[in-house]
């Protein structure tokens, strides 16, 4: 039996594939004409769309197809925004965030930005970063194959330095997840390195000065002048960081009340507070003020090169190294200004932790227990002796 040849439906196409293709065709079963084209949504995905033109002539349908195709062709094509590169992220962070930090932090940001751009590539898409780059940086930095120097290579460093560098990279990526891209979105949808742990030393060296070592330092400081003795004494008697001590002004010292004010802008953690001074610190401060004939906002430790500026942390570091050498402290055990801060926390472990934290400038008392206080035999023996006394008096059950 012969098949009946099916009549082919009429259709007409205008435009070009992939750009502005539009097609019209007749539907014999309904007697209308359909207009078909491709529509793109906000994400860029293509979806076919059909619109009925109703019952119209073929000439009208052709004209409509040509009109729609011409409109698509003249419409501006929205370019997909390019992925933000590491160079762009670091540049914006350097302009908008780093200037809010202190001088030391700003310089560290600049060094780290150059180092990571060399290591990862300026055009690197930050979304492609992973555990592989994280681990490779730790290994290369640890052996000195990558460094913030101009040559890009340096000496081997410990995990604490590596962790400090990685904190910068992590801070930039975290900031980018909240910073606007000026298009209604953010610079980075997520931090690809979130959750990765910083390298830590299993047994970090945290040296604590003994009473004998401090007296040797004090004797050496007297030979270097009143300012050297005053700086050493203030760090020892207040338990504060040397970075806060060298930025003290005479207006921060109340000798009559025996109080000292610590400004938030001069403190590493921005902790503004007041603490009492020991008699020894008050006596030295009185001598220094008379010798300097200074009052008001004059620096207690002015820079030798420019009296309008405070003593730099580099000069303070050099001073301690001179004191350490003269006092013949062991080298290679990280004796520095912070060893005085640990001595302060360890000697005052008997006072309430809240008071100790305020007295030494710690915001979180847990930091004292974790990093500063050290167990010592004398304290433990005194605790055991006190326990024996309490047991003998029947205040503690056997």
List keywords for this structure.
single chain, 398 residues, alpha+beta, Double Stranded RNA Binding Domain, hpI Integrase, Chain A, four-stranded antiparallel β-sheet, three-stranded antiparallel β-sheet, 14 helices
Describe the structure.
Helices cover 45% and strands 10% of the residues. It is α+β, with helices and mostly antiparallel strands. The protein has 3 domains: 11-74, Double Stranded RNA Binding Domain, CATH 3.30.160; 86-176; 211-382, hpI Integrase, Chain A (Orthogonal Bundle), CATH 1.10.443. The model has no long low-confidence stretch (mean pLDDT 87).
Please report the first level of CATH classification, the CATH class of the largest domain. Mainly Alpha
Report the principal-axis shape.
elongated
Question: Which strand-content bin applies to the residues?
Answer: 5-15%
Q: For the CA atoms, what is the radius of gyration?
A: 36 Å
Instruction: State the helix count.
Output: 14
Measured distance between first and last alpha carbons = 113 Å
Low-confidence stretches: none
Please count the beta strands (DSSP E, at least 2 residues each): 7
Mean pLDDT: 87
SSE run: EEEEHHHHHHHHEEEHHHHHH
CATH A-level architecture of the largest domain:
Orthogonal Bundle
Which percent range fits the helix content?
40-55%
Q: Number of folding domains?
A: 3
Q: Based on helices, strands and strand pairing, what is the structural class? A: alpha+beta
């Amino acid at each position: 039996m012969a098949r009946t040849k099916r009549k082919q439906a009429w259709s007409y196409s205008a435009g070009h594939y992939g750009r502005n293709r539009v097609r019209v065709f007749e539907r014999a079963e309904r007697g209308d004409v359909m207009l078909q084209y491709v529509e793109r949504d906000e994400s860029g995905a293509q979806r076919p769309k059909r619109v009925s033109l109703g019952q119209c002539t073929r000439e009208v349908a052709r004209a409509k197809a040509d009109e729609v195709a011409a409109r698509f062709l003249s419409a501006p094509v929205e370019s997909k925004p390019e992925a933000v590169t590491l160079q762009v992220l670091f540049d914006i962070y350097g302009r908008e965030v780093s200037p809010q930090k202190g001088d030391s932090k700003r310089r560290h940001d600049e060094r780290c930005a150059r180092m990571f751009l060399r290591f990862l590539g300026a055009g690197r898409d930050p979304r492609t970063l992973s555990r592989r780059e994280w681990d490779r940086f730790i290994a290369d930095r640890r052996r000195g194959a990558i460094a913030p120097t101009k040559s890009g290579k340096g000496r081997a460093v410990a995990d604490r330095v590596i962790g400090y560098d990685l904190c910068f990279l992590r801070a930039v990526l975290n900031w980018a997840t909240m910073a606007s891209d000026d298009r209604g979105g953010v610079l980075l949808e997520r931090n690809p390195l979130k959750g990765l742990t910083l390298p830590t030393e299993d047994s970090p060296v945290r040296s604590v000065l003994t009473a004998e070592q401090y007296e040797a330092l004090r004797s050496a400081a007297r030979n270097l002048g009143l300012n050297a003795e005053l700086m050493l004494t203030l760090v020892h008697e207040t338990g504060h960081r040397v970075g806060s001590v060298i930025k003290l002004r005479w207006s921060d010292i109340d000798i009559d009340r025996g109080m000292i004010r610590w400004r938030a802008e001069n403190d590493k953690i921005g902790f503004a507070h007041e603490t009492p001074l020991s008699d020894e610190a008050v006596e030295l401060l009185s001598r220094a003020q008379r010798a300097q004939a200074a009052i008001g906002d004059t620096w207690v430790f002015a820079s030798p090169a420019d009296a309008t500026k405070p003593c730099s942390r580099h000069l303070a570091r050099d001073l301690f190294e001179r004191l350490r050498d003269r006092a013949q402290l062991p080298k290679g055990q990280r004796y520095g200004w912070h060893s005085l801060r640990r001595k302060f926390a360890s000697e005052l472990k008997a006072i309430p932790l809240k008071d100790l934290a305020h007295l030494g400038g710690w915001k979180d008392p847990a930091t004292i227990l974790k990093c500063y206080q050290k167990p010592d035999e004398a304290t433990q023996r005194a605790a055991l002796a006190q326990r024996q006394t309490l047991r003998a008096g029947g205040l503690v059950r056997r």
